[in-house]
Design goal:
The structure holds two protein chains of two kinds. Chain A contains eleven helices and 13 strands. Chain A is α/β, with parallel strands linked by helices. Chain B is built from 14 helices and four strands. The chains are: A alpha/beta, B mainly alpha.
């Protein structure tokens, strides 16, 4: 098991939680989860649906009480400093519908009124590129526009810490890229962002670090690139005209593991330049001919399959 | 608060309903009940075969009474007329004649009295006292005057309960409340905004209904208008409190509707909307007086028709205040955002 205590005493923490547990009757949604999020980083909770990501983020947002465990957000606790904390964070829920017959502008005015300080309405509209839609009713917005408005609402109090639960779920690729650019801007402004996602590309593009979550626990935490190098490594994919034993391939030097599929083998290796000659030598010695041969870099998907034995999106 | 008000006015149909329904109800009831009173009462003279002469004589005597509508029928037909309610009284001629009627029906008893009087006078009785009738049909004493404040109160009650309670549950279902919880707004502020927002359109609502009632039916307001306004406001406040209470933890709008019905239906029947609450037995009167709708209707009728001043409606106003404060804080204590 990989430690999730990346506590670096030099960097102040935005979120610290230990032994976070949430039970609903007999169901355990979060099972002793530990997390450290540094100030100023974009941190991703990556995991399949039902892994406990939303429950975790809602406990951190103070919307749900944990069954057990400690939570500290911006050095404060929900039980004691709820309203001070609320004025310093922003959040979007996985699904919310706002008042159908208010315009974009009116909704922002409403949210702006909840906070003592924050950007003006024009700035908020510009931030999420909704200036042209300012007088449009909420019910007439597209999915991407609604999501951008939700983000603008979360920015209404100029938050230090932003929680985004599945921010691009269900959006078309163009809207997704637009949102990614905006989230990268928050990070550039020095805000801390905690997001949940089940999109690998999103985690790789946005997050400084990701925690892989499964069955309510963190099973790995690191930079996306480190995780893939450490736990996945590059992959050789090949198919041949005769049968090869998985055990023989697995025992080759520099090979980490072998996965056999209907159309061939996927071989995860430490480094291509070391492993490829070994594989070719074996094929040659057995007089087996190649039908297909390719290599690719490892992905978070590979990490996930390796750690949990299941695919991220089923 | 302003946001929600705007939202409300974006649904023109809803505005129309809250403003026009009480007026429309009043019009319908006025046509159904206003000038008529009970019409001529049906009396059937039971005519057995061979008894036609005796029956015709009785019938002629009865027809001298303007309050009765008289016809003759065979025993079988007469039984049918009684069963259907077409006839309230059946008379079997003879010495002595027999009156058949249902004593639990006031109209049937009235028909019996009128018929008996006509038969007695026709047989030679002389009335010793001739009383003078004074017909009361001036504004302030008619049924329409009684029922109008009742309808206004029922409308205020429904609007407050649905406007506050139902909308709150609807917002909870859409996870809007959960999102609002993510802001620094406190439940108390949210409650105050939800309740006060309702009161803003209470003003045009009540004003239009009252002016309409006055112009169409001459329903008077004899006491101070500000006091009537206060009574309506306090009533609405009490019902908003009940709405908050019904919605404080309710998660589905179906359940919310159920709660609202449990609150409103007993009051519609017992608080004197359509008939006076004083018709109920003496023992339950203190209970009825404690209901918010009874308090609102008693005080609004007192102000409108008896010209009551502030001191005379202090009791019911205190009842309304107690409901408002009690419900508001109980709801706040019970309240959950999700």
């Amino acid at each position: 098991m990989i430690s999730s205590h990346n506590a670096d005493p030099a960097r102040p923490l935005a979120i610290r939680c230990r032994g976070l547990t949430k039970r609903y009757g007999d169901t355990v949604a979060v099972n002793g989860l530990d997390l450290d999020v540094f100030r100023g980083e974009c941190f991703g909770l990556l995991g399949p649906n039902g892994a406990g990501k939303t429950t975790t983020i809602e406990i951190l947002e103070g919307l749900k009480p944990p069954t057990a465990g400690e939570v500290e957000v911006l050095g404060m606790r929900w039980a004691r400093q709820e309203y001070e904390l609320r004025s310093r964070i922003g959040l979007t829920l996985q699904e919310t519908s706002l008042t159908e017959r208010l315009t974009v502008e009116e909704i922002l005015e409403l949210f702006r009124a909840f906070y003592g300080k924050g950007p003006d309405i024009d700035t908020l509209l510009r931030r999420v590129e909704l200036t042209e839609n300012r007088r449009v009713w909420y019910e007439h917005l597209s999915g991407g526009q609604k999501q951008r408005l939700a983000i603008a609402c979360s920015l209404a109090g100029d938050p230090e810490l932003l929680f985004l639960d599945e921010p691009t779920s269900g959006l078309d690729p163009q809207s997704r890229h637009q949102l990614w650019d905006q989230i990268l801007t928050f990070k550039a402004e020095g805000r801390t962002v905690l997001l949940t996602t089940h999109y690998l590309e999103e985690a790789e593009r946005l997050c400084d670090r990701v925690a892989v979550v499964d069955h309510g626990r963190v099973i790995a935490v690191d930079k996306p690139s480190e995780l893939t190098v450490r736990l996945a490594g590059p992959v050789i994919e090949l198919s041949v005209d005769a049968a090869l034993e998985v055990e023989v391939l697995s025992q080759l030097p520099h090979v980490r593991r072998v996965h056999q599929s209907a159309d061939g083998y996927a071989i995860t290796v430490e480094a291509l330049h070391l492993a490829v000659p070994e594989v070719l030598r074996l094929l040659h010695s057995r007089s087996v001919a190649l039908r297909r041969f390719s290599t690719r870099e490892g992905t978070l998907e590979d990490v996930f399959v390796h750690l949990t034995g299941s695919k991220l999106r089923d | 608060m302003l946001g929600r008000l705007r939202d409300f006015y974006r649904f023109p149909d809803l505005v129309a309903i809250t403003l026009i329904v009480p007026l429309l109800l009043g019009v319908v009831l006025a046509f159904a009940l206003k000038e008529q009173g009970p019409g001529p009462l049906g009396v059937v003279v039971v005519t057995a075969p061979g008894e036609e002469d005796a029956a015709a004589k009785v019938r002629a005597l009865l027809e001298t009474e303007a309050g009765l509508r008289v016809w003759a029928a065979s025993p079988a037909e007469a039984a049918q007329d009684m069963g259907s309610g077409k006839a309230l009284l059946a008379i079997v001629p003879g010495a002595p004649p027999t009156y058949r009627f249902d004593p639990t029906r006031v109209e049937a008893r009235l028909a019996r009295e009128l018929a008996d009087g006509a038969l007695q006078r026709g047989s030679g009785r002389r009335d010793l006292v001739s009383a003078r009738a004074e017909l009361r049909t001036e504004p302030g004493t008619r049924y329409i005057d009684f029922v109008f404040p009742g309808l206004l109160g029922a409308a205020v009650m429904n609007n407050a309960l649905y406007g506050v309670g139902f909308m709150l549950v609807d917002q909870r279902m859409k996870k809007m409340l959960k999102r609002l919880r993510g802001t620094p707004m406190r439940p108390l502020d949210f409650f105050i905004a939800s309740v006060l927002f309702r009161k803003l359109h209470l003003i045009p609502e009540a004003a239009i209904t009252l002016v309409g009632a006055n112009l169409l039916f001459g329903v008077p307001v004899r006491g101070p208008i500000w006091l009537l306004g206060l009574v309506i406001f306090m009533g609405s406040l009490a019902f908003s409190g009940l709405g908050l209470l019904a919605a404080s933890r309710t998660r589905s709008t179906h359940t919310a509707s159920g709660f609202i019905n449990i609150i409103t239906i007993p009051m519609l029947l017992c608080s004197g909307v359509f008939f006076s609450a004083e018709r109920f037995p003496e023992t339950v009167q203190p209970l009825l007086k404690g209901l918010p709708l009874t308090a609102m209707l008693d005080s609004s009728r007192a102000v409108m028709f008896d010209g009551a001043g502030f001191g005379q409606v202090l009791g019911p106003l205190a009842v309304l205040l107690a409901w408002s404060v009690g419900c508001f804080f109980t709801a706040l204590w019970l309240f959950r955002w999700d």
